[in-house]
Design brief:
The chain has 209 residues and is of the alpha+beta class. The chain contains four helices and twelve strands, in the order E-E-E-E-E-H-E-E-E-E-E-E-H-E-H-H. The strands form two sheets. A six-stranded antiparallel barrel has the order 1-2-5-4-3-6. Helix 3 packs across helix 4. The termini are far apart. The mean pLDDT is 89.
Length: 209
């Protein structure tokens, strides 16, 4: 489990084509400190398993399904990536609960720059719109953000200088893809209501009477 608080802006060093998968080598001195085989590291919001690490770098295998369903397939050597280690049990939840399981991809539509912050508009796939609400949480490329405006096919977020300088959202431009993970709590609530199970469904049934 992650929190969406990016620890480090890393870099793709190399990508090896394995046929039905790719092996990524990434640079991240902070997140690789103490990392060992089998550990998890979120890369642009995608939870990957460390194959090997050393010298401030680590490798991870990415299967075709992940490449096709996330923006990792668009990366190339030299690309910047957001990196985060899993939250330690008992640690502070600085952002919100993030699984590292990408629900879909969006595209940066527009950036409006102000003196001290930016408003970024991002397209939203149809099957994710019901999970995105004003002032709710969403993960964009592994970054925990608060939704400013939730439209029919887009949402906007406001980025502070720290986010702009320490993550990929500071350098991405309109047309660039981003990974999206909606709030997992919303998905669980929807599931319980759909199956008629749990206290949420019971409360909804009572309200409908």
């Amino acid at each position: 489990m992650f929190t969406g608080i990016v620890e480090e802006l890393g870099e793709v060093v190399a990508i090896d084509d394995l046929g039905d998968a790719s092996r990524f080598r990434l640079r991240g001195p902070i997140v690789t400190e103490g990392a060992k085989h089998g550990d998890s590291i979120a890369v642009n919001g995608v939870c990957l398993t460390v194959v090997d690490s050393g010298g401030g770098e680590f490798t991870a295998d990415v299967m075709a399904e992940t490449l096709n369903r996330s923006s990792l397939g668009a990366l190339a050597p030299g690309s910047g990536v957001n990196l985060e280690r899993p939250m330690a049990l008992g640690g502070r939840l600085g952002g919100h609960l993030v699984q590292g399981h990408v629900d879909g991809t969006g595209t940066i539509v527009e950036r409006k720059r102000a003196e001290h912050w930016e408003i970024v508009k991002i397209s939203l796939p149809d099957d994710l719109t019901r999970y995105v609400v004003e002032k709710g949480s969403i993960t964009v490329d592994g970054i925990s953000l608060t939704v400013v405006d939730a439209g029919p096919d887009y949402f906007t977020v406001s980025l502070i200088p720290t986010t702009l300088s320490l993550t990929t959202l500071g350098i991405k431009e309109p047309g660039d893809p981003v990974n999206l993970e909606v709030d997992v709590i919303a998905k669980y609530v929807e599931r319980m209501l759909a199956t008629g199970e749990g206290p949420a469904a019971s409360a909804a049934a009572e309200t409908a009477k």
